[in-house]
Design goal:
The protein is of the alpha/beta class.
Length: 239
């Protein structure tokens, strides 16, 4: 992994070396892949700098999102080839009056805006779109676990670990990672399959998750870990 060192003080580096944190937990026996909030709202409708994209898509991560899309697609392809569950999350907000946004409105002055497009902002990007056999979870809060059916699906499938991709690294990815860790799932975060609108938040969130809650790996390593698993681990729905 890269990018951490420049943001750490000398004391930070010494403490990390002495702390024992950052050990590899590894995958469990039956992992599932999660694709978190990779929708038009967070990617925009075209590959452009974030300072341009965010003007019409207030949550957009701009070019960083589009750079991550092919890596996420390859990770999804590997998971499907191995027969692993692929679980998507997306916003479940539907009320035009914004009431179902809840506390989001307290911290976002543009919460009531619609994207300057006819595209549904909560539609998952076509480059990584779910297939009929995949699971799509709608949520109203950052974590995929908060008030959703995700835990029941994981129980039904016998999942013991999660591989996380998507956005934002500091928001919904991190919240889902912490909740999964708190429920004693092994967690892997795909570093270059995640993205954020703030680079400092992206980098330090990866550092924090790697230190305490998750293994942070590149997409090629994640694909290798999945490829090495036995086949036939899950009895997935046909869709």
């Amino acid at each position: 992994m890269t990018g951490f060192d420049a943001l750490l003080t000398e004391q930070d580096r010494r403490v990390f070396a002495l702390s024992g944190q950052g050990a590899r937990a590894g995958l469990g026996r039956k992992p599932a892949l999660m694709v978190i909030d990779v929708s038009y709202a967070f990617c925009g409708d075209t590959d452009e700098p974030i300072v341009d994209s965010v003007k019409k898509w207030r949550l957009s991560c701009g070019h960083e999102a589009w750079a991550a899309l092919p890596r996420i697609a390859k990770t999804i392809e590997a998971a499907r080839a191995k027969g692993l569950p692929v679980i998507y999350t997306k916003s479940g907000r539907k009320r035009k009056d914004g009431f179902d946004g809840g506390a989001w409105g307290w911290k976002d002055q543009r919460i009531a805006e619609d994207a300057a497009s006819t595209i549904d902002p909560h539609q998952i990007m076509p480059q990584v779109a779910p297939e009929p056999s995949d699971i799509v979870i709608e949520k109203l809060k950052p974590s995929g676990f908060s008030g959703t059916a995700l835990p029941s699906f994981l129980t039904q499938l016998g999942v013991d670990s999660l591989i996380l991709t998507g956005c934002t690294t500091s928001g919904c990815v991190r919240a889902t990672a912490v909740d999964a860790f708190s429920l004693n799932y092994r967690v892997t975060v795909v570093e270059d399959g995640c993205f954020d609108r703030y680079q400092a938040s992206h980098t330090m969130s990866l550092f924090d998750m790697n230190a305490k809650y998750a293994d942070v790996v590149g997409h090629e390593e994640a694909i290798g870990l999945m490829t090495a698993l036995p086949s036939g681990l899950f009895d997935l729905p046909e869709g």
